[in-house]
Amino acid sequence: PPLAATVSRVVGAGPLSSQHSEGAPVRSGETISTGADEGLSLLLARGESLRIDANTVIRIDAADRFTLLAGRVYADSGQFVYRDGGLTIETRLGLITDVGTQFSITASNDSLEVAVREGRVDVHSEKNDYAARVGERLVLAAGKPASITELDTHDVYWLWVADLAPAVDLTNKSLLDFLKWAARETGRDLQFENDESRMFAMRTDVHGSVDGLTPNEALVSIMATTTVRYRIENDRIIVEK
Predict the structure, then answer these.
(1) Spatial CB neighbours of 6, under 8 Å, sequence gap ≥ 6
(2) Alpha carbon of residue 235 to chain centroid
(3) CA angle, 57 as apex, 53 and 123 as ends, to 5°?
(4) Cα 83 vs. chain centroid, distance in angstroms?
(5) What residues have CB less than 8 Å from 187, skipping those under 6 apart?
(6) Per-residue pLDDT tens digits for 111-157
(7) In angstroms, rounded to a whole number, what is the distance separating the alpha carbons of residues 145 and 195?
(8) Most-buried pick from 29, 40, 169, 210 (CB within 10 A)?
């Protein structure tokens, strides 16, 4: 079967860990099942990230097509919108298609929840079509009307995603590259107090390793090695030289 993805991170010490190691190939047709306190991240063929939470069963139909049988996943298709379509994830209650976005899906036999952190997600169910946009959570439940509520991109709802974030390679990366990664992974906007701060971040190389750290922990660790000051205000990371 063709190669669909590569394992980029494994969390937990259950039976999954013995089956999938970092760097291992995942082929079309495989079904991945995670137990309690287990999870893994996949790097897909076009560079997208798919993160699989604990107690989840998902079938890898192709590099851009999946069937979520139960549990929760998070997809990040990067900052590109593909002209030939994004990722599609089928569930019992609907087919989900992304439009250049970050989003999570929680599925069971009688409910479907889609939360959007960036961009837009289209949901096609048996009876209706829906669109969920950034900062929204769409819930479909058997026998009930659909509901959409607000959800901040930096809400604690997204904390599980950070635990499965693929390790970032800091080789030949600038401080600006790192800050953009940290902002994206934590659901915040990156803001500089002035042009001088931005130029300094662009010209400053980062060193060291953040392997094993969550994006928030990596931000604290890397910024401690620089002369740059930063603060977090709700949905923003604000940087000042």
Answers:
(1) 23, 24, 25, 26, 42, 43
(2) 17
(3) 85
(4) 21
(5) 102, 117, 152, 153, 154, 155, 158, 235
(6) 999 999 999 999 999 889 999 999 999 999 988 899 999 999 999 99
(7) 49
(8) 40
- At 22, phi and psi to the nearest 5? -60, 130
Three-state DSSP class for 64? Answer: coil
- pLDDT, tens digit, 9 for 90 and up, residues 26-64: 999 999 999 888 899 999 988 889 999 999 999 999 999
pTM of the model: 0.90
CA distance 165 to 84: 26
User: What stretches of the chain show up as alpha helix (H) in DSSP?
Assistant: 15-19, 159-163, 175-186, 195-203, 215-223
3-state secondary structure of 3: strand
Tokens standing for residue 205:
């190389």
Report d(CA 188, CA 128) in Å as an integer: 32
Measured CA to CA in angstroms, residue 223 lies from 39, 117, 205, 236 at distances of 28, 25, 12, 16
Q: Is the dihedral of CA 167, 5, 96, 114 positive or negative?
A: negative
Angle at 33 between CA 89 and CA 146, to 5 degrees: 40
Q: How far apart are CA 91 and CA 236, in angstroms?
A: 34
Beta partners for residue 133, in sequence order: 120
Q: Which residues pair with 42 in a beta bridge?
A: 7, 50
Helix, strand, coil shares, percent, the chain, to 5: 20, 45, 40
Q: Which two tokens stand for residue 54?
A: 């604990």
Tokens of 195: 């042009």
